[in-house]
Amino acid sequence: MALKALDIYKLLPKKNCKECGDPTCLTFAMKLAGGKADVELCPYLSDEAKSVLGASTRPPIRLVRVGVGVRFFKVGEETVLYRHEKTFYHPPGIVFRVLDTMTEEEIVAVTKRVRDETFTRVGADLRFNGIAIENASGSPEKFAWAVATVEKVEAHLPPVLIATDPAALTAALVHCGTYRPLIHAATAENYKEMCAIAKQHGCPLVIRSATLDGLVQLAKDCTAAGVADLVMDLAPATLGDFIRRSTAIRQLAITRAVPDLGYPVYLDATIPGLEDAALVLGIVKYASVIVTDPLGPGATKAALTLRQNIYTDPQKPIQMNPGLYRVGTPGKDAPVLMTVNFSLTYFTLEGYLESTRVPCFMLIVDTEGLSVLTAVAAGKLNEALVRDSIKKFGVENEVSHRKLIIPGYASPLSGRIEEATGWKVLVGPRDAAEIGEFLHEEWKQP
Amino acid sequence: MTCEPDFGWTGTIGEVVLGATKADGGTRRVSYRLGGGTTLPFLEKRADIPTPLIAFEICDLPVFWSPIVKKACGDLVNNPAEWAKAAETAYGADIVRLYLTSTRQRDFSDIASIRPAVEGVLSATSLPLIIEGSNEPKIDSEVYQACGETGQGERMLLGTAEAGKYRSIAAAALAYNHSIIAQSPIDINLAKQLNILLKEIGVQRDHIVIDPYTGTLGYGFEYSYSAMERIRFSALKGDTDLAMPMICSSIDSLTIKEVREAGPADQDDMAIRWEFYTNLAAAAAGAEIVCVRHPGTIPLLRRAFADMKRQAGEVQ
Questions:
Q1: pTM beyond 0.90, yes or no
Q2: DSSP state of A322
Q3: What is the ipTM of this complex?
Q4: In chain B, whose CA is at the least distance from the CA of A311?
Q5: Which of A81, A187, A188, B254 has the fewest CB atoms within 10 Å around its CB?
């Protein structure tokens, strides 16, 4: 049962020593209550207070870090079942799999791809996160060779080591033991040896069981053996299994009904014929580490875009930088279309403008990411903003005419914008899809 | 130890019948019962809850249709009846969704052409139909009247009603016993409001399918995804004004930059993945009908839905 901030505060030393990183014990208590801090940060807590607070204040899903260096990723510490309740914090690491039966060229090519490839959209660089190396050969030497091959190309890509033989893992860890690889996987049969290896190298460990009871037991056993950074492989036989178990685990973990399920989830998406489906469902249904074979061009963009969409904070719309943007190479007589800096509005309008093939300017004004309708209602979009933006972005020097096309939903402002700017205002359509037709019919050369 | 989550649902998604067989006074080979869900999508324990249905979208005037579809479907795009037949027999769709794009031409007035267009598709396929009519208040009434009458007895789904445009569609649906698609702009409250408006003019709950509007992947999909999750959540919590099946139609999937600008060798792949990722994620959020325009997307969705419904140990 979660404690309230004030109940927690009563258990704290009330010294306001700041050693936890917070200015006061009360602010630390509030963070603990929200699952955003760890009791261990307070050096003055009695063991008794820790045991009271421990279970109820640590984040309901443990934060696990994979890899070191600039490309490491963190997963877990999620607090909700639905993104609209708050947000999803840590996007899943999507790692490409190589097998130790592949040739050196193949392994090097995949590694370089993960190292180098980025896909930029809405101002963010989207990337895959790491390399999973699988001991398909069964030979520890081959496995160690494959891991060394990856590490030679780029040592800072978070590795996932997939092997059932502890001897193979030991051989591979000679090459990457200090890079915090994720080890896959401890089962009821081998967890003692796996825990010893993970503990020795300070690595996070995947536990694998096809039942939730099995996972709970493994989590208890592994933490008792000294490995606290766990990730859970639900060993789903079907995608249906995955959705059902992953949803159950998320719900049971965030409500703290079963605290031992409070770890990030691992998904093997290398299911013949169902790779794309596994990626989609992993991304939307709570997977935190997803292993896939290297993706083709379509799946690459779609998967990275879906992950970006789902892990966008619903309370903070992605914004465009305000400014004057060009579509094609507009001349002095090209139309100027004003709209808001809500990224979705921008990209939707831009897409339709591009397909009309009419070169034009987009004047993007700063409504703090609000859409046209809400910005008008909230008064964020007003004549002063439009006037100042025209000046600030030098629109008058770019075009020889003085005509401004405004969004249909901003029509109530048309008169006031004309007065404030001295520009003639044309009210455009409400729906960006109709902008092509509008331009062809309404836009007359000045 | 209990490892079953308790969501505390009290509501059920209402059911909507789509398509009428001979026994029900129609000519369709199959009739679907949409909805009936009692928990989150794909978490049902009941085996009789259907997987989402796949609608293939066609039109009667393909000038504004994506060139990618024209390439994939060839000459069929110029013959709606043959195209509809291919949707059933070659592509493996569950539903045919016919857009009467001809009615969206400037100054369209040829109402008499609607009956043969709808009749042609009805006789070419035995699948249940969704008909998308005009987008112009001056002719909506006549267009929907003609659609509704032509499909009388077939339990079609007519689209698309919006807050400012629902009377003509509702009138045709009520007169000829069809259901309607009610679309709101990615907002649970507006979705509810429209359903209440429809209820007030006599459209029953079991004749409404909610379209929360789907921005395609990368173009607002996250808003649509959450709108769908919220609608489903509210319905399961007992809000009967939102307890209807949902349809996902990401009509922009094939016109967005990533697909448009893909090289010729990658364009089909990009188009199919974009439709697939958008629709599968929407199904996970609660869509009971998903819509595609590229035939290549259908087998991928079909296979994924089957595996998502399958329990551990069940034979494929």
A1: no
A2: P
A3: 0.96
A4: B222
A5: A188
